[in-house]
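Section: Multi-chain targets

For targets with more than one molecule, the full set of components is provided together so that the structure can be written out for the assembly as a whole rather than chain by chain. Components appear in the order listed by the source. The example entry contains two components.
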Amino acid sequence: MEFLWCLVVGVMTTCGVFLMLERHIVRFLFGMILISSAINLAIFVAGRLTRGNPPLIASDALLPAAGYANPVPQALILTAIVIGFGLLLFTLLLAYRAIKELGTADMDKMHNTEAGQ
Amino acid sequence: MTQWPLVLPVFIPLLTATACAFSFRSHKLSSVISWAGALANLCVALLLIQRVISQGLLVTAFGDWQAPFGIVFVADLLSASMVLITAIIGVAIVLYSTTDLRSKPFYAIYHSFIHVLLAGVMGSFLTGDIFNLYVFFEVMLITSFGLMVINANRQQVDGAVKYVVLNLISTMVFLLAIGLLYGATGTLNMADLNAKVALLPETTMMLIAGLFLFGFAIKASAFPVFSWLPASYHHLPSAIVALYAALLTKVGVYALIRVFTVVFDLVDSGYQPLLIIIAGLTMLTGVLGAASQFNIKRILSFHIISQIGYMLMGLAIYTPLAITGAIFYIIHHIIVKANLFLIGGFLQRRQGSDNLRELGGAYQSMPWLALLFLIPAFSLAGFPPLSGFWGKFLVIKASLQTDAYLLAATALFVSLMTIYSMTKIWAEAFWKPLPDNAAAPIALTRLENCLYIVPIVALAVITILIGLLAEPVYQLAETSAINLLNPERYINAVLGNMPEPGQISVLAAGESQP
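Its structure, encoded as tokens over all components, is:
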């Protein structure tokens, strides 16, 4: 199970890096979305992948039953998804504005910041 | 028990930001709220550093969830002094922007953003939990995005694309590093991580440390991942760029120092030789970049990079003296850099340009401003007895003690080149007569002049004070450095009141085994 999961993460990262090397800003963004999802999945594995083992502590025990899935990474991912969503929304709007304002989606042609030198 | 001075530096700016957001109809009201918030924060920061000096480390666990399970805020000397410097910069910037941005339509929302940014910076300095550090980085990041496009003209949008893209990459790498670190050790508390990271297999530790180094290096704009900074800073309004120059990269350096002393040991992690090379090249590229520029804000932006090199150099040498130097340097640099940008902004406002070819005659019309410029400029270059001299002296002495002669030579050469850039601004903007084709200077009212000059004078006075009274600042930096290199006190203060140590180690050991 973990092996398969790692494979998925690997494939997503590969595609993400490939897309991020593109000059077109929208493809670049797609690449970034893929990688940030891949990172969330990678953190998910850190909490152990099991089925039907809720991290609940029985009333007479100190620790949850062995082999439970650690809920902390899941909480971390939830936080990261929320933050990532906000950042992504901003970045998409910025990309839209940049294309409108600069008249190009090609990152190599965005030289306006160097103008006036 | 909650230590209020620990929580208020984050809470007050957030409250002020909310109040500013609701008072957007009245520029006057939002300025007053913003001033009140910034001043209140300065008072709390003073109280915090006084408490830390008199009582030692302060720790607060939120909701009484004790470390290492709950999130803690920790104030040691380093955090407390960083909070104080941030609060000082906050007051200076808020005052300055009252006149600099008054006429802009985004004025009220600007105050709201700036306080959220301050809250993010304060939180990053105070938190003792590495995921919480990530959250505060994000708070800082998203507001800095907002401020970056607040004018939304062509150049700003273009610069913002570069800034956003590189910073998002840094964020993702940082998040991945935290996830892997938790998977390997089962804890997120920095004090708790200290012992558990030492038990990791070397390759795992190196991988995670490398990810942290990469993520923070982008934030700190170290070589070779600094390109977002000169691409985006110079088109920002002066008050905003002064705030960014003072704080954003320094939070990256602070995170590097914190993580590579308390969590990882830089020498054990094996990245020390790499960091020494990075530090040298960061200094060199920054200063050479500045030499080729002809625009005040661009010159100063490149100088941020070269100064970051000195701080990294202090961390890279990793002796108590070197880290003392790095901390001293951060404190000095935040004040001086903000001041230089404020002066540049004032010139730009008067003359309508920050291009050196269109400036001139400032010495004739404003000799006092010329004097005020010389103080931070000489301090940046490292003239005794100003604050920059001591920072440079400490890191260079430390590098000579560890036989890093090439690094010391680079540092000395870079300060020479810094003088060159500063003389260029002096000669072009102040000394030469105003060019014929330049527009006539805009006349400012007395009040406007005052609001521009008060923060500049205040920061210049602080620079002189740090320089003349270097001993207390040095001792503060030295104590912080010794505590960073021997983090037992930090760890004991955070984990000291753990209920049952045995039980916790059982839990933590269970995390990493599938």
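Residues 154-185 of chain B form the longest helix (32 residues).
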